[in-house]
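stage 2 :: seqdesign
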């Protein structure tokens, strides 16, 4: 099976946020049990990184009170491995395991 066969389902389950959004906005998206990761998009809607629950918790533990206005871009993981629609699902799983 190729990745392109999974795209309709993947798009329905993909949560995105802008790179200049506040960390609290990412936390709200990640509070749903359905999402463990949010894709961060730059101003041209291209993938800039990802942010996880762990990233949010790690950063919020350094905030003072409710005034944490940290931008998502300062916390996100920038080095993201991507796949293409023509990639085989088995190859992608293999890469993820590595």
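stage 2 :: out
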């Amino acid at each position: 099976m190729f990745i392109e066969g999974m795209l309709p389902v993947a798009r329905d389950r993909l949560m995105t946020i802008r790179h200049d959004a506040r960390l609290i906005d990412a936390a709200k998206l990640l509070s749903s049990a359905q999402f463990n990761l949010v894709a961060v998009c730059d101003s041209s809607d291209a993938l800039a990184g990802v942010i996880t629950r762990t990233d949010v918790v790690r950063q919020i533990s350094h905030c003072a009170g409710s005034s944490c206005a940290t931008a998502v871009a300062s916390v996100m993981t920038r080095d993201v491995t991507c796949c293409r629609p023509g990639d085989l699902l088995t190859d992608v799983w293999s890469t993820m395991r590595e």
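stage 3 :: structure notes
- The chain has a mean pLDDT of 90.
- The longest helix spans residues 89-97.
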